[in-house]
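Quick start: read one record
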Amino acid sequence: MGIMLGYNESVNKIRNEVLHRFKQSGKKNLIITGSRGIGKTTLLNAILKHLKFSENYDEIFGIITKLDTDDSGCKKIILSSTTNDHWHTMAVFENGKPNINADAWNMIAVSCLKEVVALDSELIFIDEIGFVELGFELYLNEIARAFTKKRVIAVLRKMDSDFHIELKLRDDVYVIDMDDYRIRR
């Protein structure tokens, strides 16, 4: 069983513990993994906010992929980089299953990630690497390239795909499994 605390104190306690363990590991990259809804993105945001102030980053750039519901109730997977405010539709759900826009992943997602990696910043983030991305080798290659060229903090949906396993087994990656913690709201 993991640590059980109230929301605010648990986020800060877990953030401090994770950052301490990560720094002690000597690894370059951090992966935050865990089950759906466990608090991966919450922890990522707490870490990024902390790093901005404690390590004097003006801004930490990255890629955000998330599930969204539009005004008509249509669920979509959308993606944006922090370098612009435009959200790109990557998939639209029909009958509960994502209808994936392959061109969007092969062109837009790859381009957004390349743009973030090209910036003059040693640290970037990727939130989240999930199941949809697995069908797009160009995007997966850019993710792997990002882990080599930059320091990366990434949210990784808990699953056992070859790509997810390879990413977690890299010598330069420290993995924190949020299923070992509990963030209560």
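Helices lie at 7-25, 40-54, 102-118, 137-149, 162-169.
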